[in-house]
Design goal:
With 304 residues, the protein is an alpha+beta fold. It has eleven helices and ten strands. A hairpin with a 2-residue loop joins strand 4 and strand 5. This is AraC family transcriptional regulator.
């Protein structure tokens, strides 16, 4: 029996809409998925990580692969790789939890989520579940949804714990091999760039400056022309090379300002800025606040 696949974009089936500002402020948003197949949608870049329980038959076009989902599966997506979903039926069903890296790593300066086997570029983000695992995953998502609406003071910590349980459940499993590998030079060079960028962090010493700061320097390290690097990264992720570098530097700057006693001058130097003024201007441009103001706000939150 043949079917026609219709790419869809998720929407929330409850009365609550997915408010991007709310996601940005809280760092997470969970919801049940019940979406009708609709008009074709191109790849979209998301600004968040996602763990989803997909209970519909579909194909996920992820980076340079098409991954078939023929039974209930856990799906892991990162904000650096655009993807689309083609449903093999009338509806896309399941559960999703969206979250930022800052939410998952609050009070924790461990390795970036990009280095996780589940979220790293080039990994296989789909894990098919048996009946027992489906019941377990549905139970975890149910707990996340209930906790999201609770008034519990530490519900963020509890939701992080539930997400970690889903992550560890997937890590115990063998990834599905039901995908078609495409020869895509842009995807390969983008994966190499993102992995090279991530290896620069975390910054451990205020006396050791970042060795790579510009798209040209990354291109030189990778042995490619900077124009080729920029085209590849933009094609695969939807964002320029410089945007990825800036976002990762800002993320590390926030962590250093929050979790260390380094002076802003030391933070600036460790991140490759020759003068603190350059760092202040860069930080304010990307966050609308100064490093000192960000540190003061973080301290007030810790004291509250």
């Amino acid at each position: 029996m043949t079917h026609t696949a219709a790419p869809v974009t998720e929407r929330i089936s409850s009365h609550q809409d997915l408010n991007p500002q709310e996601l940005k402020l809280r760092g997470f948003k969970a919801y049940e998925v019940d979406t009708a197949a609709g008009p074709s949608h191109a790849y979209r870049r998301r600004d968040f990580y996602k763990v989803a329980l997909v209970t519909s038959s579909c194909t996920v076009e992820y980076a340079d692969r098409g991954i078939e989902i023929n039974g209930p599966s856990l799906m892991f997506a990162n904000p650096h790789i655009p993807y689309s979903i083609e449903v093999h039926g009338d509806r896309l069903t399941g559960f999703s939890c969206l979250f930022t890296e800052a939410f998952m790593k609050e009070n924790d300066r461990s390795e970036s989520l990009q280095q996780s086997p589940l979220f790293k570029v080039g990994g296989t983000p789909i894990f098919q579940l048996n009946d027992e695992q489906v019941a377990y995953a549905k139970g975890i998502f149910g707990k996340i949804l209930a906790e999201q609406e609770s008034d519990y003071l530490y519900k963020g910590d509890l939701i992080r714990t539930y997400l970690q349980l889903l992550i560890h459940e997937a890590l115990r499993m063998q990834p599905t091999e039901s995908f078609v590998q495409h020869k895509n030079a842009s995807s390969r060079i983008t994966a190499l760039f993102l992995e090279l960028l991530e290896r620069l962090f975390p910054v451990e010493s205020p006396s050791q400056a970042m060795p790579l700061k510009t798209a040209q320097e990354f291109a030189n390290q990778l042995g490619v022309h900077v124009n080729h690097l920029n085209r590849s990264v933009k094609e695969v992720t939807g964002k320029p090379t410089t945007a990825h570098i800036a976002e990762r530097v800002i993320s590390e700057a926030k962590a250093l300002l929050h979790h260390t006693s380094w002076s802003t001058a030391e933070v600036a130097y460790s991140l490759g800025f020759e003068y603190p003024t350059y760092f202040n201007n860069f930080f304010k441009k990307h966050t609308a606040t100064t490093p000192l103001a960000f540190r003061r706000d973080a301290e007030r939150v810790m004291e509250a």
